[in-house]
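QA checklist item 7 of 12: single-chain prediction sanity check.
[x] sequence parsed
[x] length recorded as 566
[x] structure emitted
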Amino acid sequence: MTMWNKLNATRVTELNGMAMSRRTLLRRAAVAGLATPAIAGLLAACGEDDDVDDTADLGDTDDADDEEIDVTDDADDVAEEDEPDADERRGGTLRIGLSGSAENFDPHHQTQFDSIWVNGMMYNRLVRIDPDMQPVPDLAHSWEQDDEATEWTFQLHEGVMFHNGREMTAEDVVESFERLKDPDEGTAFAQQLDMIDSVEATSDYEVVFHMDGSYADLLAVLGFYAFRIIPIEDAENLATEPVGTGPYKLLSHSPDERTVLERFDDYFLSDEEGFLDEIHYIKIEEETSRLTALTDGTVDLVNEVSPSSLPMIEGSPELEIEEIVTGSYHVFAMQADEEPFTDVNVRRAFKLVAERSEFVETVLQGYGVEAADQPIPPNDPMYGEVEIPDRNIEEAQQLLEEAGYGDGLQIELHTTAGRVGLHEAGLTFQEHASQAGIEVEVINHPVDSYWADVWMQRPFHMSNWGQRPNADLAFTVAYVEGASWNESNWTNEEFEELLSEARGILDDDERREVYREAQQLLSDEGAVIIPYFISVIGAWSNRVHGFALNPTRMVELHKVWIENGM
């Protein structure tokens, strides 16, 4: 049985009493954003423990001696001496249990994780974001920038084939980004790409991004899940007939039941990844049913498990369980153009009634860290030291009285139990708010209809966000005027000026300070409550190898293989 350990990035001082392997600690600390000297200090504090089995870190598949690993190395890159070769890993079917079902297969038109996870295996980006939040090659094998970061040049792999049998070229990259930026196309991502002035194909396998001013963080942007390359001739039909360059292609789709992908034999990296014969994404709405399916072998992987359900699976000798600190978060969206949230005093009062430490302990059961109503997590290099608001019922009541609600306030909060912890967070806020005279009615909706019929359409509602690859995308996706997913309808001219200023700053420390000001402004005046960042827990059969949780919550299966090809 694999021993599972957890690292809460805010409680480093507790490590002395924890049994944690060197490799597990390296991964958890790196994801939490700790520098190498800090990691070395933690290793010294933990001491050696030769009895700890560290195979839960799925970059590894055997019991390699931790003593051979230098603390400055990336633990995920450690080669295993007896790992099977590509031919031995090839074959088998991976079955994943999900709470929902894919709603469409067009990577440029997505709102649900269930679609994003499936599309991630059928399409490629120029670069990927790895579990350490670093950009790594995908369709582009190399790149360079000029001194001012106003021009970025990418060299593409040759011989990359679309599922329709046509070779991908630099012109497909150009057309994909033109489609993403086209206002008539109506994607949700055009505004997040407005730093790109134009994209030019300078040869069949070279593409140049011309920026609208200096932009140092383009690689992180290009690693965003939506920025995938498509064949433009098939664009109109991608929602139902996906055509990508990925390691897998669509075999069948039964809405609300199962989506099946099969291996694409002409995949350009087939010697390195894409080992499975098929991947089945199976909708099992209730978590208890998903975990029962995992323990009885009906499914092989459940990528998100709520802390409250861990007792169902912790004792199984056939499962691997892992936690990773992420920048994912839940949002209480207060629409700033709807009463009562047009008044900043009401918004501030709602923020002040939230007891964040209790959210972490009650909703997350300790698997997360407190947040300050802004979306940049501690593992992001642009995270600023924004003070986390303390609960203050007296001040909240005073602010409500100033806003004309001295006798109390009644409000509906719309949420869904279809995402781990979301409904529980709503009930926790209901209890917190009642102590300030705010009567909250929590209304639960089915997950499949929630995003189309409720999200962004009610004055007070909840949502579920994954970590963005950089601060710019995290802000522009939902907190600026005209953003397709501005669920709170909050806009602020000073805030947007800070974002524009940050884009042009090449020095990391100077850029971080500007982003810190933006984070503080959103925390103080914005129309969202973000009480915590979530640690994601995943569980999978110990026959599954090559899988690692990603802080962005992407389910990356490129290198996954099944033992004995089953």
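[x] summary fact logged: The chain has four domains: 12-77, 88-102+245-315+537-565, 113-237, 325-534.
[ ] second reviewer sign-off
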